[in-house]
Amino acid sequence: MAESDKNSKSEDPSYFIDLDWFQENGRSFAAITRHCLCSACQKRLASESSDMEATSLIANIKDCCSKVPGFINIRLPLLEKIFRLILSRENKPLALTELVTELTSCSDTAALLSSQTLKSLLDNDRYYGFSRRSRAK
Fold first, then answer.
1. Nearest-angstrom CA–CA distance, 96 and 27
2. What is the pTM of this model?
3. N or C end of the chain, less CB within 10 A?
4. Quick check: 83 and 117 in contact, CB under 8 A?
5. Left, alpha or beta for 108 (phi > 0: left; psi -120 to 50: alpha)?
6. What CA dihedral angle connects 117, 119, 120 and 123, to 10 degrees?
7. Beta strands in the chain (DSSP E)
């Protein structure tokens, strides 16, 4: 196998939600994330006077909201599904191959996308704050 083939196969970019991106772009992570909360958590947080910290929101979604049926469903746009999937994994970077596998299991449209198309969508995102890390296997 040629060296260039080895390198292309050994690199599997992983993606996470870059919380710094929101601040750098004048966006509110809390505002974009609140719609992912289950109704019980939305009610509870509405009664709290201050904004919840990003890490607390992520932990809350992982521990509670992501377990509610329909948290990720076929009606959601693809990037919203990815956003929720990463939140449900506590914003730990997920490899592109893992994302494809997870999306295929919860959505019929994801199976139609190639890894390269999904990579391009994630790399060009300007709404959810996706960021890429390359890691060698």
1. 25
2. 0.84
3. N
4. no
5. alpha
6. 160
7. 14-17, 94-95, 130-133
Per-residue pLDDT tens digits for 107-135: 665 556 778 889 999 999 999 999 998 54
pLDDT at 137: 38
The rounded distance, in Å, linking the Cα atoms of 79 and 128 is 8
Amino acid (1-letter code) at residue 48: E
Tokens of 61: 């979604």
Task: Write down the mean pLDDT value for the chain.
Answer: 84
Residues 126, 136: contact at Cβ < 8 Å?
A: no
Within 13 Å, how many C-alpha atoms sit on residue 86's CB side? 26
Query: Please, what's the b/e burial string for 65-84 (b: 16 or more CB within 10 A of its CB; e: otherwise)?
Result: bbeeeebbeeebebebbbbb
pLDDT at 101: 86
Beta carbons within 8 Å of 95's beta carbon, 6+ residues apart: 12, 13, 14, 135
CA distances from 68 to 40, 72, 73, 96 (A): 10, 9, 11, 25
Tokens of 110: 């994801």
Cα 10–16–21 angle (5° rounding)?
125
